[in-house]
Amino acid sequence: MKINGVEIDDTFAEAFPMKATRIIITAMNLKWAYHAANALRGFATSVIACGVEADIEHELKPSETPDGRPGISVMIFAMSTRQLAKQIPIRVGQTIMTTATTACYSGILDSEETVPMGRNLRYFGDGYQISKVINGRRFWRIPVMHGEFICEESAGVTRAIGGGNFLILGKTARQVLAASEKAVEAINAVPGVITAFPGGIVGSGSKVGSKYAFLGASTNEAYCPTLKGQVKSELPENIGSVLEIVIDGVDEESINEAMRVGVTTACSYGPKKGIYRISAGNYGGNLGPHLFYLRKILS
Amino acid sequence: MNALTFELKSAPEFPLDVSPLIPDRLEGLDLQKIKALKVEYGKQKTSVSSLFRVSGRDREHIRIQGSTSRLQSVGKDMTRGTVEISGDVGKFLGQGLKGGRLEVHGNAGDWVGNRMTGGRINIYGNAGDYVGASLPGDTFGMNDGFINILGNAGDRIGDKMRRGMIVIHGQAGNFCGSRMYAGTIVVLKEAGNNTGVGMRRGSLILARKPAHISATFRSCGVLKMQFLRLLFTQLLQYGDEFSLFRKFGAEARRYTGDRARNGKGEILILLNTNSGPQ
């Protein structure tokens, strides 16, 4: 199969069940909402060592937020609700609460599972915190130096899928990066998905395991262009750079759609602009229950 | 489906307890059984059919027509559905209400929402004393839920209130929010004397400055309260009758008290009720 002269491998991306939450950050203006959102999603590229994977989902108009101020919705993914419950209060407390004029709300309502936010952070109020139940939602008013930090009691948790991905193979790093950037832009327009890596792109895709017993993940040498002659490589002679785009989403449909628009956008660059092949990362199909076949998605 | 309608044949001479006329009690009953239900009328128990003309089918939507202030305990212990009343109601409207909606197109008597733990009460006229307040001997008043009064309300609104919200579009009487434990009371016109006296926690939000604030309250100055932004935005979702909150600013003078108790309650006097969100 070829799209615009770009070869689509007959392979699939293998994805895993995750748990996700959505947090809505509001502030006096978008600039300060972004300060908080960027801090919250900092060091959250991969669950391998960060605990969670997080990214800004989209901006929210004042009419879309609980307090009528401009806001940003951030999605946070982890392997379990327990992991989320460990990370969310720490991250919200150290990033959103410390940002001037912010407030923090749950972006998922009526869910079966929740993770604590204000439930833990209220103690920062040292006895002066105030609980308010409005519209069936509990908010904590924590007096702080900028005024009041308002934080919802907890954030809803939903089932999600992590690890949808595809690889863009091309001639040079510059060319592959240009195509990848555009692909990520297209993916960001799809609701319910995030690309947690910096700029949405993985520069150092990994495989499971290592020759070193202490290491759980290590470089994916089959796709390292510098090792083409040294290992059992997946790369032919003309490939000089490979970048991976990893997508977490709330359901299979959203990941399907994100992969479709991402691959299509990358392919629009074509071999003339140095994009030769699209592939995907998997573990043989035995580990993850969700398989995304590239050719099926694109047909 | 058309609402199950109870039309009073004539104005009752004695207090009439209509607490059985709620969706929870009428579910699965045919019209004959409903007509045969007994209600307390004065000192006697009388069948529904001797007092009301019954028509309609929808057990989840009940309408009471020709109501007077002798009707008591409307919607008592209800958990779901709607009870709509054309006319006035007497004491104990929505006592022990757990869910659902009560709509009163008239005035209500004393003790509205007593022991209420959920649901919503809409009163299009005035309400009497002790709205959401505790009965003598009860530890707490209203425990949760929402009471919206478009007219005025009497004294001791939200006395010992524990949780929930009361919005009064008109005036409030004396001792509004007295001995409150928590919850929110909003009054859009004048509140009477001794507002908030003895409150431990909770928020009293007054659109107009009261004539008098107890000496046991201390001013925290004029502030832009982020909480008010959240509250007004959320109130918009309760229905069109709250669209006036769209115009309200977040600026308020904050008093904390009652310092004769633990002093963690607050009275917020709105300064800018028509300049729009800021």
Question: How would you characterize the overall build of this protein?
Answer:
The complex is a heterodimer of chains A (299) and B (278). Chain A is of the alpha+beta class and 299 residues long. Chain A is 23% helix and 35% strand. Chain A has 6 helices and 17 strands. Chain A has helices at residues 30-40, 81-96, 118-121, 173-188, 252-267, 294-298, and strands at 2-3, 6-8, 12-26, 53-60, 71-78, 103-106, 113-116, 130-134, 137-144, 147-152, 154-170, 193-194, 206-208, 217-219, 241-249, 275-279, 290-293. Chain A has a 15-stranded mixed β-sheet that branches. A two-stranded antiparallel ribbon of chain A has the order 13-14. In chain A, helix 4 packs across helix 5. The longest helix of chain A has 16 residues, at 81-96. Chain A is elongated. The radius of gyration of chain B is 20 Å and the shape is elongated. Chain B has 278 residues and is mostly beta strands. Chain B folds into 2 domains: 1-69, no CATH class; 91-270. Chain B is built from 4 helices and 17 strands. The chains are: A alpha+beta (299), B mainly beta (278). Chain A binds chain B through residues 62, 65-69, 101, 103, 128, 130-135, 137, 139, 141, 147-148, 150, and chain B through 144, 163-165, 182, 184, 201, 203, 223-227, 229-235, 237-238, 264, 266, 277.
